[in-house]
């Protein structure tokens, strides 16, 4: 049987000339482009935000705003532990802003940030030696033995997990948390005061779209219930920090509105 080579369609070939091209090659199957933004290409994850440089910049601004408002890296009474020698886990670390900052402040302790997207991790020359990063999908569990960590921190994951996944994650946190360890959740409230009709319409539609994807943006109201269902956790404290939104709030209000 003979074949006609002229009828065979030409295939596009990706050539890899440098490290940047190789990184792009590796991301072809892990990410997808939608309306010019890069998203995780994972049917198992519910994360609804992009995963690109623009999102990292937004994450950096969000982190800076929280630090300005909180005036501290954590509310849990763990400073003395961190000054000695503690193991700390940051769940959903993103670009690693929090875990790197705290790692710099407490060089005697060991810190590890985990996230489903390792492309956002800082390079080795941009974090101290006591800070490490691991790619993992927390919906499959936390890949560490029981009673590993003295302090578990996670923030701004309301867009990443369903309610059932949140509940299961709290159980996993309890498993890897040491006796007399601490866990801290930092989540936002989608509602804001005096939002007006247009603001209310926008928030309600955002909540509805998220709900269709299985995401509850009001998860901060559910976390205390998840914690209360675990007999191993006690001494629950709840802090509410308000922030301005809009030009009336000065420079901070302008940044928050972005």
TrEMBL record:
Entries under Pfam families matching the protein: Methyltransf_25
A molecular-function term among this protein's GO annotations: methyltransferase activity
InterPro entries: Methyltransf_25, SAM-dependent_MTases_sf
Ranges where the Methyltransferase domain occurs: 88-181
Annotated keywords: Methyltransferase, Transferase
Single GO BP term: methylation
Annotated signal sequence range: none
Name of the protein described by the UniProt record: S-adenosyl-L-methionine-dependent methyltransferase
Species: Gigaspora margarita
Lineage: Eukaryota, Fungi, Fungi incertae sedis, Mucoromycota, Glomeromycotina
């Amino acid at each position: 049987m003979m074949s006609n080579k002229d009828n065979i369609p030409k295939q596009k070939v990706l050539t890899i000339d440098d490290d940047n091209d190789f990184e792009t090659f590796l991301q072809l199957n892990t990410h997808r482009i939608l309306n010019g933004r890069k998203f995780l290409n994972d049917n198992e994850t519910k994360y609804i935000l992009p995963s690109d440089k623009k999102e990292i910049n937004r994450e950096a601004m969000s982190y800076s705003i929280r630090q300005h408002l909180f005036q501290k890296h954590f509310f849990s009474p763990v400073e003395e532990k961190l000054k000695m020698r503690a193991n700390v886990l940051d769940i959903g670390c993103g670009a690693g802003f929090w875990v790197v900052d705290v790692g710099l402040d407490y060089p005697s302790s060991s810190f590890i940030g985990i996230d489903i997207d390792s492309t956002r991790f800082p390079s080795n020359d941009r974090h101290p030696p006591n800070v490490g990063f691991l790619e993992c999908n927390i919906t499959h569990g936390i890949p560490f033995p029981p009673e590993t960590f003295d302090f578990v921190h996670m923030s701004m994951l309301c867009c990443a997990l369903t309610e059932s996944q949140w509940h299961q994650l709290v159980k996993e946190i309890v498993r890897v948390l040491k006796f007399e360890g601490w866990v801290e959740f930092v989540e936002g409230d989608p509602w804001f005061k005096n939002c007006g009709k247009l603001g209310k319409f926008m928030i309600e539609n955002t909540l509805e779209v998220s709900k269709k994807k299985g995401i509850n943006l009001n998860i901060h109201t559910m976390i205390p219930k998840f914690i209360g269902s675990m007999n191993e956790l006690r001494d629950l404290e709840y802090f509410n920090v308000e922030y301005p939104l809009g030009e009336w709030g000065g420079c901070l209000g302008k940044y928050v509105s972005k």
